[in-house]
């Protein structure tokens, strides 16, 4: 139909979440219409992101610096560590602007169904971060799903022997809800009313 | 929040039709997760498409060749010319596989509201293509919208002095409907039952 390069571009774009074949075709036509202002900058930025952005060795955040901008920001409280499932959840908390400590990204949740065990999550890295003695409180901000709660319990057990306070986001996070879908107010309230475990 | 490269990528992706800021963020995380199999090939393909794909000087189709693959395909009937509003509509007809002639892309429709006049559409190019004497029939396949029908009438008038038969896609295209949203069967039926103007 269209040339092979265009077909290939449609197929690649159709693999993005939220886009199917039809919207990918529309996206390609839009990109070609806005070649100088959208297609060329997008190609360059994708390439730059691909070459420079990596997971932070300390916290798992995605950044062009390693350790990342959050881990090296001296204005942020290194005594407070917020454990999240994913970078998407870290971004959600940052957008809400309600947390001024640092993060630890697990990279998923325990799930027997999906075959995700403790070794598949960055829990050892979390324990290792306790060795500095600087972390006073670990706030577990996994999602309020069954897997998120199972993971929270597991982490609580693993941290039991450490000299840190452990807390959990307050209910306020709707049961079954995911952080990335919550408004800033709800996120802020849940963080403020966090309860010790 | 995230680094400036990531923020820029989110902003660019959010400008694609069908994606908003939230889905753009999810797309970026997905791209970074599938860096080697999706992000890198997408950046390269975007760049290649940006550098090689242009509008065909003959018909307005988008292709890396000029004249395009359709214009130079000797198996296609050069006596049949199908006039469409956009490359999206050309793609829709090609996907349906119901037309084996060639195309002419107008690049829009007449619209007093949007300030689109005859000079903004590639109508002169269409008239010029009649000079070869090889085109026997022009099938006007503009959308069944008010603008599409106004444009069809205008083109019919412009072609009146040419020695060609003019036809229009049969009703079968739902009134108010756009070609790009139709199933192949409807498109094929509408083409077969096209009526002379
Ligand atoms: Zn970090
Ligand atoms: Zn062409």
UniProtKB/TrEMBL annotation, chains A, B:
Gene Ontology MF term list: DNA binding; zinc ion binding
Zinc finger (C4-type): 56-71
InterPro entries noted in UniProt: DNA_Rcmb_RecR, Rcmb_RecR, Rcmb_RecR_Znf, TOPRIM_dom, TOPRIM_RecR
SMART domains found in the cross-reference section: TOPRIM
Record's keyword terms, sorted: DNA damage, DNA recombination, DNA repair, Metal-binding, Zinc, Zinc-finger
A Pfam family assignment: Toprim_4
Gene Ontology BP terms: DNA recombination; DNA repair
Toprim domain ranges (all copies): 79-174
UniProt-listed HAMAP family: RecR
PANTHER family: RECOMBINATION PROTEIN RECR
Function as written in the Swiss-Prot or TrEMBL entry: May play a role in DNA repair. It seems to be involved in an RecBC-independent recombinational process of DNA repair. It may act with RecF and RecO.
Name assigned to this protein: Recombination protein RecR
Lineage, broadest ranks: Bacteria, Pseudomonadati, Pseudomonadota, Alphaproteobacteria, Rhodospirillales
